[in-house]
Design brief:
ATP-binding; 15 helices; Amidase signature (AS) enzymes; binds glutamine; 38% helix; alpha/beta; Amidase_CS
Length: 483
């Protein structure tokens, strides 16, 4: 049962081949058996899952239908889940039970999904390796000595290991696309504002966006359908109708203009990944696409700009964790200042503290103009580069990451080396554009992803291209040995 995609599960449930309860029990047993190797879950929600599965079966028996009705999923542990621990991968929130459901969680529950649990993640979604979690690192099912990517590494490892068909994730600088690339999944970061951020614990509010992680573009379309839409509770949510994403999958690629930025093929890119990117370009050309070289001249400034803006916003967002209102509180505080200092010093891990310090520094009176304001100007230039490129092409294609998944611990002593791995993903967040990573081959037995970027609200176009590619390639069907 565990090999089925969301689309196959939907057909099986509709044809009464099995019930959601049977499927849920089978997957919970599989998680209990295999997850100890991966550490992809922070919390399991067996009771909730079984009651949701029974309710979904009852709804079907009453004549209701829907691709998500009875579908088992999991949520990244930064989506608030009412009455259930929502830790954000942090000791700070280890004891935090959210008092309400995030909009994404509520929408998916209403569509009939079954929540198996909450997935592991980098602390407060800061990282590219899923090593900064208070609950320990997540292992990559393709090679247990390697990282699964981050920050949505738990969602990615669980889906890649066939513990469940799909999961929610979030992407501030690549945290959906990069773990998708590292674990042979398809992951979509929607346009900023397409998916509600209400009840998603904030990292960098102007960059954060929730989206689906699954094995295929077809499944991403199904899950995104349940997540997307206007939410009056999120002032940056956009009031645009949600198209039928599954209907967009089958368009022809004849004449589709694909831009390949020349800056992507610089010295930092593993030449074996460059070759796989070229192979994917050839495969899409065969389907009728037309390839054009383009330029994104400000790309080189994106990492420094992102690593000023994201920490600046984080330093503000995380100020609410003060030992008074949420989460961890130190023992026997001597006075209020001691309470703040020790609660935050003990509750936050090293990477989170580093980001808070960088962010507070960049925002301080003497340095605001030099760092934060300059970074915002670069952000506009990065966006302008994309706007110019999309006057000439319909899609931009390139590698998702410069290297395949590295070994656990390999970058722990050098945070900047880890930041540099985000070079291809962060520009979409700075510009607010939608991006998708899809499986495109292997290097040393480790998966490699190709990234597609599209103009605002063209998620359907990304899913269309990825689906047509997947109809003509079989990378996405490969399964890690032992799972
Ligand atoms: N690696 C990036 C960071 O640490 C992106 C993380 C994310 O998208 N949540 O900020």
């Amino acid at each position: 049962m565990h090999h089925m995609t969301l689309a196959e599960i939907a057909r099986g449930l509709a044809d009464k081949k099995f019930s959601s309860e049977e499927l849920t029990k089978a997957l919970l047993a599989r998680i209990a058996q295999l997850d100890p190797q991966l550490n992809s879950f922070i919390s399991l929600t067996e009771e909730l899952a079984l009651s949701q599965a029974k309710a979904a079966d009852a709804r079907r028996a009453n004549g209701e239908s829907g691709a998500l009705l009875g579908a088992p999923i999991a949520h990244k542990d930064l989506f608030c889940t009412q009455g259930i621990r929502t830790s954000c991968g942090s000791k700070m929130l280890d004891n935090f039970k959210a008092p309400y459901d995030a909009t994404v969680v509520a929408k998916l529950a209403a569509a009939g999904t079954v929540t198996l649990g909450k997935t592991n993640m980098d602390e407060f979604a800061m990282g590219s390796a899923n090593e900064s979690s208070h609950y320990g690192p997540v292992k990559n099912p393709w090679n247990l000595e390697h990282v699964p990517g981050g920050s949505s590494g738990g969602s990615a490892a669980a889906v890649a290991a066939r513990l469940l068909p799909a999961a929610t994730a979030t992407d501030t600088g690549g945290s959906i696309r990069q773990p998708a690339a590292f674990t042979n999944l398809t992951g979509l970061k929607p346009t900023y504002g397409r998916v509600s951020r209400w009840g998603m614990i904030a990292y960098a509010s102007s960059l954060d966006q929730g989206g689906p992680l699954a094995r295929t573009a077809e499944d991403c379309a199904i899950l995104l359908q349940g997540m997307a839409g206007f939410d009056p509770n999120d002032s940056t949510s956009i009031d645009e109708p949600v198209p039928d994403y599954s209907a967009s999958l089958n368009g022809s690629l004849q004449g589709l203009r694909i831009g390949v930025p020349k800056e992507y093929f610089s010295a930092g890119l593993d030449p074996r990944i460059a070759e796989l990117v070229h192979n994917s370009v050839k495969a899409l050309e065969k389907l009728g696409a037309v390839i054009k070289e383009i330029s994104l001249p400000n790309m080189q400034h994106a990492i420094p700009a992102y690593y000023v803006i994201a920490p600046a916003e984080a330093s503000s967002n995380l100020s609410r964790f003060d030992g008074v209102r949420f989460g961890y509180r130190c023992e026997n505080p001597e006075n209020l200042v001691d309470l703040y200092k020790r609660s935050r010093g003990e509750g936050f891990g090293a990477e989170v503290q580093r980001r808070i310090m960088v962010g507070a520094y960049a925002l301080s009176a003497g340095y605001y103009d030099a760092y934060y304001l300059k970074a915002q100007k670069i952000r506009r230039l990065v966006k302008n580069d994309f706007m110019a490129a999309f006057n000439e092409v319909d899609i931009i294609l390139g590698p998702t990451t410069p290297n395949p998944a590295w070994k656990l611990g390999a970058k722990n002593s050098d945070p900047v080396a880890e930041y540099l791995e985000d070079v291809y993903t962060i520009t979409a967040n700075l510009a607010g554009l939608p991006g998708l990573s899809m499986p495109a081959g292997f290097v040393d037995g480790l998966p490699v992803g190709v990234q597609l970027l599209a103009p605002y609200f063209q998620e359907g176009r990304l899913l269309n291209v990825a689906h047509q590619y997947q109809l003509n390639t079989d990378w996405h069907t490969r399964t890690p040995t032992g799972f």
